[in-house]
Structures are given as structure tokens and as C-alpha cells.
Amino acid sequence: MSIGKVFNELEKRNEGALIAYVTGGDPSPKYTPRIVEALVEGGADIVEIGIPFSDPIADGPVIQASDVRALNAGTTPNTVFEIVREVKKTVDAPIALLTYYNIVFRRGVGKFLEDASKSGVDGLIVADLPVEEAGEYKNYAEKNGIDTIFLAAPSTSLNRLEKILRMASGFLYLVSVFGVTGMREHVAQLTMQTVRKIRPYTVNRIPLAVGFGISKPEHVRTIVSCGADGAIVGSAFVKLIEEKYGNFNGLLEELSTCAKILKLATKPRLQTS
User: Fold this and answer.
1) Which one of the listed residues 15, 37, 45, 48 is annotated catalytic?
2) What is the CATH number assigned to the segment(s) 3-264?
């Protein structure tokens, strides 16, 4: 199922999307397909799998630590492509990869997108690729049927937002706060203001999903009620993997339960003004 179709189906049911993030190969490549299955069984509508990178500048300490574990386990981009192939045998939910441009460039932009498509990748987030320099990437992505998910931030001007929206497909990833990924206690007032500011530019055009610091059901409920079409949760799941992977069956159960609780917070969408 495509990313766009998932959002269309959820809109009919008056639900927001739960988008779950995990790092590919954390704690070991053999575990990631089962982890993704557990998240989808719990209610995740879309799963992002991160390609581990030695310098993940957008990520906080929880996800940085997961990158280290995955790299120490021998995870490479090829490993992650194989993980996606395995996942696609049992999971119908769309899979998006999150990576950095160095990894794409080193392989060759065209080759990377071709290999991603062959593995079953539905969407791609290149966290440090400016929209102004993304023409070649966008062309290859369209050629290979992969959605290009771009990031916007509270500081993004409306002029630049329009450039991003012209290049984006799948969904727009709104970075909810300044700084890096990680669990936070509350949804910032700035986040709610930014969702309400950007929503009029995305409605009937592209789904709007919010990430960075979203880790609790009340966070999900708040951003969906502000007008977001989806909530992106990463550090909460990655932290569970860090803490529980010694008991793998117990970990899968906890991940599924956590996803279920977070998913319940996306429905029904009770939007506020």
C-alpha cells in the first residue's frame, strides 16, 4: 500500500497516522524485521527505518546510540535494503527510509534510488538535503516510484515552504521543535502554533506529519487535534529496544503495546481551531 493511500484511508476513518521510527540493524539486523512487524501489529500505519550513520546530526542521544549499536552489528545500506525486502514479505504498511545525503551520494543518487525501489522502499527522507539542491534526487525518485519526504521547521519561511511543497510527496515532515530528536515532557506551544500556521498550506495538497519529541499519547492527541495528519514517534520505540532487547519476545510485546496505545490517541481526530 502506498503512503498516499494510507493517508486517504485514515482520512475516511477520521484518524491520524501513527508513523513509527526504528534504526535498521538495532540491535542486530536479524531482529529488525520482527520489530517492524510488532509495531505494525500494534497499530503503526507507516514505518520509518533509519540507515545507521556515523554522524546523524538531526538525532539526539537515544537514536545516536542506536546508530552505534547498528553499526557495531555490521549494518550497512545493503543490510537495510535486505531488511526492507524481508519486512515486505509479511507487512503491507509502507516503509520509508531515513538517511543522510552522504550515504546516497556515495552510492550514486540514481543507483541508490533504484536499489531502494527494488527492495520495496515506498518513501525516502534525506535529512540534510536542502530542497534547493534536490533536483537530481527528485527526478530519480519519481522515476523509481519513491515518495520524496521533505522536512520543514518552525523557522521555515512561507516562501521556502512553497518550494518544499512543490518537491515533496508522501507527506511533509514537520520538525516540531528546534534542536534534535528525543523524548520531551510536553508538546511545546511553538509546535502547536507551527502546525496551525502550516496546515492551511498543506490541506488538500499533502499530508502533514509532525515529529521530534513526540513520545506520549497526549503528545499525539495534541498535534492531531491541532490539524496534523500524522504523528512520528521514534525515540520512545528506540529507547524500548535499548532497554529490553535482552528479552526479545518481551520487547516485541512491549513495542506492540506501545504502538497500540499511541495509535489509539490518533482517533477520532477532534480538531480544534
Assistant:
1) 48
2) 3.20.20.70
Residues 6+ away with beta carbon under 8 Å from 87 = 32, 33, 36, 37, 47, 49, 95, 120
Q: Which of 15, 59, 86, 147 is catalytic?
A: 59
Residue 246, phi then psi, degrees to nearest 5: -65, -25
Question: Is 59 a catalytic site residue?
Answer: yes
Report d(CA 55, CA 64) in Å as an integer.
8
Query: 235-244 and 248-264 are packed helices; what angle lies between their axes, rounded to 10 degrees?
Result: 160
The verdict on whether 218 is a catalytic residue reads no
Q: What is the mean pLDDT of each run of 10 residues along the chain (273 residues)?
A: 96 96 97 98 98 79 91 97 97 97 97 98 96 97 98 93 97 74 54 90 96 89 93 94 92 97 85 45
**In terms of pTM, does the model score above 0.90?**
yes
